[in-house]
């Protein structure tokens, strides 16, 4: 069946969205969400706008085109917030949506208003065609993704996602199919000691020295025992910050470190926390007057989805038909909203979108026009194959 889809509409919609300043913070996603909600409702979708309470003028929208329920539904997923332009000067206006040599420039063009536009254009084409679906098509446009997917983390609690069988996340991948994602386990470790005069350290308990010992031991233990994943590689550890002490002639009675661990399957974060606590306790046992606290700041599990899932198969076929190249499967080292949908909904996710992942958050961010057009067509074909009785 031929859908009423003009691929260049994805380019025009991307430009409209880029011109809407949704930098996070503060977000201000509500006007863009209202604009997209109106379009999806006009294409025959049932729509629900969900207020997002962190800040002002913020919301999500979930739109559903209902099918018969014979097949599981498909989730189209994208976020509408963007990071700020930054301090490095741009050669184009960050929110100007300038076109140049086959590229559309602007903050969010790649990450990920281009992907959102392609999803919406595909969904509108299916809705306006009036085709009978055997499974629901659900479109979720979220706020506050750029702060560790906090928006989707709240939205998934709403009763709006029943009956789904897969999630397509339109983050930039140059239309490669990314089916695995590293987890993010962020931990705040604190050592607490006893202050004393710097000339008489024997009367105190130095928390900075305890932290130094802990970090050296944890770096060694973490890097030598973790698994390697075929798509994601090895886990990583970054010590993002260390803060301790008040001045040079005072024994430090407090030291805090923030650890960013990017994990791979089958590593369990609960086991990681236990091992961190055991290492910290061992440090304390050898240092009288020192105690430790471990606080989990963020816990996003790693995910790995099958390359032969119905979604990956259909999307890979569509991408190959359009580009002439076999789909490239891979994994991402950062978090996308797949880390919310897959564990909470129990469905496989595929991350596939227009634009180069390396352009995300960069000055002079851009997306290729060809990618936008191909993405809209690929998404529509994929949804039809999965949800429409005629494929």
In short:
The chain has helices at 8-18, 30-42, 109-129, 150-155, 207-225, 269-285, 310-323, 338-345, 369-387; strands spanning 46-51, 59-65, 73-79, 99-100, 103-105, 137-142, 164-169, 177-181, 183-192, 236-244, 254-263, 291-300, 303-304, 329-332, 349-351, 366-368. With 391 residues, the chain is of the alpha/beta class.
Corresponding CATH superfamily of the largest domain: Zn peptidases
Describe the global form.
elongated
| Strand residues, percent | 15-25%
Give the CATH level 1 class of the largest domain: Alpha Beta
Query: What is CATH's topology name of the largest domain?
Result: Aminopeptidase
Which sheet architecture does the biggest sheet show? 6 strands, mixed
- Based on CA atoms alone, the radius of gyration comes out at 24 Å
> What oligomeric assembly is this protein in?
single chain
The low-confidence parts are none
DSSP strand count: 16
Please tell me the total number of domains. Answer: 2
Q: Give me the CATH architecture of the largest domain, please.
A: 3-Layer(aba) Sandwich
- Mean of the pLDDT scores? 97
**Straight-line N-to-C gap:** 8 Å
DSSP summary: helix tally: 9
SSE ordering: HHEEEEEHEHEEEHEEHEEHEHEEH
Instruction: Give the helix proportion (percent range).
Output: 25-40%
Q: Biggest sheet, strands in spatial order? A: 1-2-6-3-7-15
**SS-based structural class?**
alpha/beta
């Amino acid at each position: 069946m031929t859908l009423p889809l003009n691929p260049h509409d994805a380019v025009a919609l991307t430009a409209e969205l880029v011109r809407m300043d949704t930098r996070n913070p503060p977000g201000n996603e509500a006007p863009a969400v209202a604009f997209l909600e109106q379009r999806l409702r006009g294409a025959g979708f049932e729509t629900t706008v969900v207020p997002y309470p962190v800040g002002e003028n913020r919301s999500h929208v979930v739109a559903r085109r209902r099918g018969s329920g014979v097949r599981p539904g498909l989730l189209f997923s994208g976020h509408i917030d963007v990071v700020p332009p930054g301090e490095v000067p741009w050669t184009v206006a960050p929110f100007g949506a300038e076109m140049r040599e086959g590229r559309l420039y602007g903050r969010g063009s790649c990450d990920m208003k281009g992907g959102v536009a392609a999803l919406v254009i595909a969904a509108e084409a299916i809705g306006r065609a009036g085709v009978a679906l055997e499974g629901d098509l659900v479109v979720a446009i979220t706020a506050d993704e750029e702060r560790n997917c906090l928006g989707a983390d709240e939205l998934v609690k709403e009763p709006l996602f029943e009956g789904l069988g897969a999630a397509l996340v339109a983050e930039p991948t140059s239309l490669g199919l990314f089916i695995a994602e590293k987890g993010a386990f962020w931990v705040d470790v604190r050592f607490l000691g006893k202050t004393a005069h710097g000339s008489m350290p024997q009367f105190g308990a130095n928390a900075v020295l305890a932290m130094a010992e802990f970090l050296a031991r944890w770096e060694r233990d973490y890097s030598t025992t973790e698994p390697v994943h075929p798509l994601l590689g090895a886990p990583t550890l970054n010590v993002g910050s260390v803060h301790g002490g008040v001045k040079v002639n005072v024994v430090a009675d407090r030291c805090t470190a923030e650890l960013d661990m990017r994990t791979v399957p089958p590593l369990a974060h609960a086991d990681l926390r236990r091992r961190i606590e055991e290492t910290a306790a061992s440090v304390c046992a050898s240092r009288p007057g020192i105690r430790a606290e471990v606080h989990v700041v963020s816990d996003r599990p790693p995910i790995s989805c099958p390359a032969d899932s119905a979604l990956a198969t259909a999307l890979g076929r569509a991408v190959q038909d359009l580009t002439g190249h076999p789909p490239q499967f891979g994994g991402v080292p950062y978090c996308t909203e797949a880390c919310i949908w897959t564990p909470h909904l129990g469905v496989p996710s595929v991350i596939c979108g227009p634009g180069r992942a390396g352009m995300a958050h960069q000055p002079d961010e851009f997306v290729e026009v060809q990618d936008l057009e191909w993405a809209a067509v690929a998404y529509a074909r994929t949804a039809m194959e999965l949800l429409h009785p005629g494929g």
